Amino acid sequence: ARGKPTSSVNDTIAICGRSEDKKNIMKLLESRDGADDALRVIPIVGLGGVGKTTLANMVFKECGSSTPPMFDVSAWACLSDEFKVVDVIKSILEFITGEKPKSDGLDSLQQKLKEHLKGKKFLLVLDDMWSNDISSKDNRKWDELRTPFLVGKPGSRIIVTTRSKDVAETVTSVRGTFYQLNVMLEDESWSLFESVALPDGGESARPILEKIGREIVDKCQGLPLAIKMIGRLLRSYGGDVEEWKCILNNEVWRIKVADCKILPSLWLSYYHLPEDIQQCFAYISLFPKDYKFKMEEMVMLWVAEGFIKRTPTIEQQEDVARGYFDHLLLNFFIQESSTDPLQFVLHDLVHDLAEYVSRGLCVNWGDINLESRRLCYNQGEDEMLLYNSKVQKLTRLRTFLPKVNEYGDFYLDDKILSDMLSNFKLLRVLSLQGYSISVLPDSVGDMKLLRYMNMSGTHIKCLPQRICRLYNLQFLILRECYRLKRLPGNIVDLMNLRYLNVDGTPLEEMPDGIGTMKSLRMLPNFVLGKGKSKHMKELKDLTSLHGKLQISGLENITDPEHVVAAQLGKKEYLEELVLDWGWIEERETTTLDERVLDAIQTHENLKKLTISGYGGKRLSTWIVDMEELETWSFSGRDERGFPSLKELRITGCPMLMNMPFCFPSLTVLEIEGCGNVFGSNMCCSGGPSLGSLRLLRDLRIVEVECLEFLDEGFYGNDDCDVVFPSLEKFEICYMYELKIWSLPGRNRQGFPSLKELTIQNCPELMTFPLCFPSLTDLEIERCDKLLGPEMCGGPSLGNLPTLEDLTIKGLDCLESLNEGFYGDDCGDARIFPVLEKLEISEMPRLKTWCFPGGDRRGGFASLKELQISKCSLLTKIPFCFPCLTTLGISECYDLNEIEMSGGPEKGSVSTAYGHSLLSIEITKCPKLEKIPKSFVNLVDVDCGGGCNKLASVPRLQHVRNLSLRYVSESMSLKAAIHDSTYLEELSIESDCSNLTLELLSLDLNRLTSLKHLHLMIPGDDYERMGWENDDQVSKRPPPNLSHLQISFCNFQTGTKVLTYFSNLNAPITSLEFSSCQVGESFPPDVELPSTLQSLKITWCFDLTTISDQFLSGCSNSLQELTIEYCDDLVCLPRSLSTLQSLRILSLLECPKLVVLKECGFPAALTHLTIKKCPKMKAVSNLRLIELTSLTHLELEKFKETSRLEAGCLPVSIEELKIRNFPRLETLSGVLPTLKNLRLLEVDDCPLVNQKPRSKMHKLIPHQFKSSTTD
């Protein structure tokens, strides 16, 4: 099978011997006892190969498959040896969203992760954490990673697998507590061995084999990986006693693992691999640990390297390579990735083995051997290593293959690249994927042995003619080269080329003579240019094409006979065909498109078919077998039509009419922009209908304008008792004429398996059936007439027995949620019995929400999350949700009450309702006066931003995060947080100072968990701030207060608050002044806390100077200083250069700021950022050369700097980012001096790349992120 090999053995042995461990971890996940319930971190500690990842994966799958799911969000991240917080967060976000994050900044990534985790119960697995960067002595990186996790719902859990007890001690949520995973017991080890080594699980094993086997298992010392690998080796010998004895008595068992760090069982398994497979396995060591690869990627590289045994026909080599891959997978050298079943990895111990057996062949950066053959490095990090003089001398190099960094677009100077590659004339594999190079060096044309070249994602505009002399080239990959329009004409001379991938590359046409390239097996995209109709004939002799073929530009066909000549029906290995006519506003005739489609006539075993931009009115007989429609049967015995077609997509075919559906194996169908596809005579045609597709699982219908009714004509009149029997997902979108959706008649059932239903932008739709027994997710959006009076009296939303997630958005007609909404057809049946999430938004006429009476009060029994927004006329929200944990209300301008409805028993007023609520967010509800007192277990509370009448909140004993913004001035803070011992973050923003005054009058020492405090104090209330003279005020600060932010205040008020906390000796380490009216300078009597490590001053517009006295109090502790958006600030304090503890300095958008010569920067700075401070005209004025500890420098908008000369920057710099230097012409002066540079980003410097670069090859290597490299 292409893409994913299969192994029944791997699937069946994973759970042997770890059932008790799994139960124990599950108990730790499920238990709600303990002080760490809010966020429990469970480290699993054990030796390498003991099964930590396997155990974590078992638990992860168990949690994901439970009904209902144990967690709202689950994610898995595999960590690398070098622990990088940014990369870990990116990995988590990619797992959650399915998309790669675009931003690189830690702050923005943390914020995005918070958005996905806030108020949700999550499970996160951090696999293989054993970095030296995390330890009990230094936990800063763990704290950076942990920060976004704190916003989750109580009950959230993190599992960490690690070999290091020190790491476990650092990350655990209960000091000294972690789960020690021991080696397997004797019986468990034997059970695992039996399941792998003996075909029938040992039932027929001879006693002698069991005796030998037990001795071998004993040598594996209880490590599952060792047992599985040696067991699989012995399985290959069947019951040969002598072979088993040879393994038992092998000298390898005497090797001490401490000497070579390789388990003996792994050695034996490797030695007994066939020689060709040994080469393939060793090759994977080229990539770093935890590198995820796909089978097809590795197959191409193995073939290109010449590792595959010669076969009678070269076409079979990929198949042989896939067999090798399967062998390695079956014998546990390769294992499935925990995060993606289509990707694979090597276990760390197996990777150690691969590295050992390939030593000397792969370039070792620590000790470069000129005989090394293979070179791999981390793109975006290790470019400078390439220009080591020894690297230039690697003339025997066979492989140049950087590990692609998918988050960036990296630059290598054309001249440097040319000089380097000119030395590598023996290359077989060359990849420059992801580099923003615009020219491929001519020296590539001299690589006569080159078999694999990947230029995907580069900026090349053309390929040099010299590459057409690479007669051994087999794989040419040019994906997403968005500037490449044509291939060289002589490329057809590459007679051995088997794989040509131009997906996502805007080629205008294929070269003449491509049909002579008879070795081609993969050609994902074939482009027909204007006036090139005859090019279709070129496909005739490409009989070996496999996989996918897209034919683009079919609108350029002038004679269907050219299509006939292509003989697509003989391409029997094709699995997927995409037919693209492009986009044409108006076609002169539709008959030509029909004749072209008729002529394609592909083979009947096609699995996927996409038709886009087709202008015909009918589909061809080779697709639907039109002549046999009257006798078509779906009994499973009829093999006409497309018996193997599984996916069909038809888009942008506005003239297509009356389409019959004759595809018995179809599982996915998408119809978009085909206004006439469901014709009026479909019902009476007698042909196969949509409803008869018995295997269809996914149906999407978009912009089919003529369709007014989903009824018998849609379901069909054929003799099937159940319509859409297997359909699981159904989307109906932008159907502007659709009015009625009814169930099938004649006592037929419909949609028994439907789980997800989306109805969007169907403004005329008035009714739809509500008899979906398996429906779990329903989204209704912009359907103005839906759920109106026409739907009353029949089945209702409330009666859907399995509905878990309901979204209703933009229904203009709905005025009330009442009996008609819940349904009155089932007597006393519970409404929405399993609904977990309900979202109601953009309902401009919704005024009332009433709960049904009688025994049906017990509805919403499972609801956990309720979101209501933009229902401006809604006045009351009834609260009758016994399990609700999250409540969000916004922009409900008439809302005046959250009404606590009756309890579970008739006539009772429930005190239990509301006790389950943990998170509440209310914004822009100006008439709401109170939050019900029964919400006593709230953990996260965010109120304000337009709730100026909100005066009452419940007693918040369990709250962790509390934000009160612009609420009523009569709010009683004391009643709310007097005994909130769990409160960690408190933010108060108000038009008056009442809340702040009340806060500071409390005994703050009782807030034992408070770490972050944000106070916004009106600037005109200075006179009222007289609490420091109140003898009744307790002078004890919150014992753990570390972060204080003061904003929107008269600075006299702000400093008074700061002085208050300073006098109380609060251990403040981080302080921020934001949007404060400070005057020209900070008051001279203000002294910052001696514990302060981070200071941020932002949006203080009238500040002109910062005195030396202001920083004197923290001169020995301050590590980070940020000043931004201070329009009038002229200079920095003279004492700044004397702050020996300062490491990070950021100056942003201070238009008048200059650095005086007598000031300077602290010599110990490691990070310096200066952005948009135009008065700092030239970089040379900053005297940065004196900063000998500086490693990270970021400069933006230095308009007068034209050159960066040698000696202007310190040699210690590792990362340099330059943006918006409009006059900067060259970096040639400074780059050779930056011996430690690892990262260079240059953006918006239009002159840098315009001048000749004849001297650039003398510079150090660099990477270059730029949008102006043209």
Automatic annotation (TrEMBL):
- Name the InterPro entries on file: Apaf_helical, LRR_dom_sf, LRR_R13L4/SHOC2-like, NB-ARC, P-loop_NTPase, WH-like_DNA-bd_sf, WHD_DRP
Q: Which domain of life is it from?
A: Eukaryota
The molecular function terms of the Gene Ontology recorded here are:
ADP binding
Report the transmembrane regions from the record: none
Q: Does the keyword RNA-binding apply?
A: no
Q: Which Pfam families match?
A: LRR_14, NB-ARC, WHD_DRP
The Disease resistance R13L4/SHOC-2-like LRR domain extends over: 420-623
Instruction: Provide the GO biological process annotations.
Output: defense response
The record's section on SUPFAM superfamilies has: L domain-like, P-loop containing nucleoside triphosphate hydrolases, RNI-like
NB-ARC domain location:
24-198
The name under which this protein is listed is NB-ARC domain-containing protein
